[in-house]
Amino acid sequence: MPSTALARQHNDPGFPSLWEELRWRGLVQVSTDEEALAAVLASGSITAYCGFDPTAPSLHLGNLLQLLVLRRLQLAGHRPLGLVGGSTGLIGDPRPTAERVLQSKEQVADRVRLIADQVARFLDFDGEVAAEVVNNLDWTEGLSAIDFLRDVGKHYRIGTMLKKDAVSTRLNSEAGISYTEFSYQILQGYDFLELFRSRGCVLQTGGSDQWGNLTSGIDLIHRVEGKAVHAIGTPLITNSDGTKFGKSEGNAIWLDAVLTSPYAFFQFWLNTTDDDVVDRLKAYTFLTRAEIDELDLAQTDRPGLREAQRRLAWEVTALVHGDPAADAARDASAALFGTGELGAIDAGTLEAAITELPRTHGEPGDRLDALLAASGLAKSNGDARRAIAQGGVYVNNRRVEDADAVLGEPDLLHGRFVVLRRGKRTLAALVRA
């Protein structure tokens, strides 16, 4: 995370405790004993961890929620550990439907490095509660199968393991479950035990769908060390219509700028529905309750301005990609629809902004009426000429007044792109052939 974002992050002092704020922000779906956990969080600095398996080359929005929980804990004076699963990534957390395809050790190692770098961006590594990124391969790679079965496996009961949701679902499916994935919960439990022993870690956070794996470590520590530790399961975020949050036409929204551009990231948040925007502001930003209440009121009084969505989009984009990228995405979004200067947008942001638009190819000297027809903004050359005559056609937000106009070299932004617009909001892109 950019240092400017870290510097302006604070928990809301209007809450009597961190626990109350986590509850208000909708970040607690399930937990160990609530009263005891609230007391632990209020009693002094503790160490907490969350695990991130390298199942992809980037983290996504579900992972971002976990990182922000760790950051909120750190801001409250607790030490966060970001665990990257170099060993659990080799095994694979059981999915409800089918066995994961095992990745090579080399591919997992490459992804571990990428994920570790991403985790490190969202935590502060200075000060009394400096964060640490750890890799569970460090304490499992040298562990023999015999030692693992004797020292760890003997504390697990098959009956209990079979009751875990992910396991029972797979057992009842055609695919079944391999011993490899069945053992995943033991490995995750061992991680908690190791971090308890080596770093005094007493809290694990994760998604509520991981609750069986979270409690695996709690049970193991209780059996081996006779100590009580804690866990928080965050809710699985869904949209108000019940669809899975963080999916766009089947594709995850990634934190890696190459996989999801800052502009596309910004647009995802900008398109949040009115029913969902306040919940997203609570969970994914560091805005205070008073600020969020004010945006909620603005949404009710002035819904057409979409102030809450615009603030949400900027805040989360700045959080992940930095202020300049958030500013560029905001300005590009405005400029596409005529309220900003397209020529001031950098080439990368502009290219990302027009990715989803209908497009055609053209060169200087091509007639604009033909290009409008080719782009789909007009049904024919004649339709395009009528639209120009009526004053409804724009090239890079400049109204076209001549029905016989041709594309000029200066029209090509960054020597490559042209934004065509008919009316207020119907857009197409022209890219130099």
TrEMBL record:
A motif ('KMSKS' region) lies at residues 244-248. Its EC number is 6.1.1.1. It holds the Pfam family SYY_C-terminal. Its main location: cytoplasm. It is an enzyme of class 6 (ligase). It catalyses: tRNA(Tyr) + L-tyrosine + ATP = L-tyrosyl-tRNA(Tyr) + AMP + diphosphate + H(+). Residues 366-428 form the RNA-binding S4 domain. It is found in: Cytoplasm. Keywords: Aminoacyl-tRNA synthetase, ATP-binding, Cytoplasm, Ligase, Nucleotide-binding, Protein biosynthesis, RNA-binding. A motif ('HIGH' region) lies at residues 54-63. Belongs to the class-I aminoacyl-tRNA synthetase family. TyrS type 1 subfamily. Catalyzes the attachment of tyrosine to tRNA(Tyr) in a two-step reaction: tyrosine is first activated by ATP to form Tyr-AMP and then transferred to the acceptor end of tRNA(Tyr). This is Tyrosine--tRNA ligase. It comes from Amnibacterium soli. The gene is tyrS.
